[in-house]
Amino acid sequence: MENKIPTHVAIIMDGNGRWARARGMPRTYGHAEGARRVADVTGAAGELGIKYVTVYAFSTENWSRAEEEVGALMKLFRSYLKTCTKDADENDMRIRVIGDRTRLDPDIQDAISRVEEHTRSYSRVTLTLAINYGGRDELTRAVKKLARDVRSGSLECDEVTPETIGSYLDAPDIPDPDLLIRTCGEQRISNFLLWQLAYTELYFTDVAWPDFGAAELREAVEAYGNRDRRFGGVK
Ligand code: FPP
After folding, report:
1. Secondary element (H or E) of residue 155
2. Which of 2, 63, 81, 171 keeps 20 to 30 A from 157, CA to CA?
3. Per-residue pLDDT reduced to its tens digit, 77-106
4. Which residues line ligand 1 (CB under 6 A)?
């Protein structure tokens, strides 16, 4: 049978806290181990021929977690953004960020801009980090921009199509995900890529994110390949 490889895989990296607790360790230990899996899984995705990987690293809701946990996650982003360029150089990996970065500390915003600029021409695989990201927040920001353009006269209200709306989102040039993976048992979208997931195949696994590696990714891709994809109407 033809081996179907998804072009774009989106991942909700769930279960870091539970994984750590099961080992008698603090939640932040789970996040640190989870951060390591991002590089492993993106590397494995590149090997499989997957072109885009988007990971849910920090949601707009995550600010309500304990200050210590939020701080630890921000520290992990800082350190990842510092070290990822070496990996990007070696693997022809472009790195992008979606979400409202204006709420992040200025040094993190600067690090994001630097990494995005440094990896702009890389094209084997694109890793998109969703940081301070929420699907409703992204759509709200898109609608605000669109409304401003209608008000200023650069866009006609009657010309607005689904493609127009898509073009106002954070990464309009990235194709919609073909496959969404969520780890650690929950079966929810949790405000991730609400617009982009309209036709995406959903894959849920009980494996916690810190235990998710190349073999688990291959399993998910295989399950995707065995599914009979239908886009409504085409039977
Ligand atoms: C969900 O697990 C995971 C998060 C809220 C954060 C995801 C972040 C990482 C994997 C690390 C940082 C990533 C990069 C790119 C450096 P949870 O804490 O909700 O787990 P639980 O449901 O078991 O409590």
Report:
1. none
2. 171
3. 999 999 999 999 999 999 999 999 999 999
4. 13-18, 27, 31, 34-35, 38, 57, 62, 76-77, 80, 129, 209
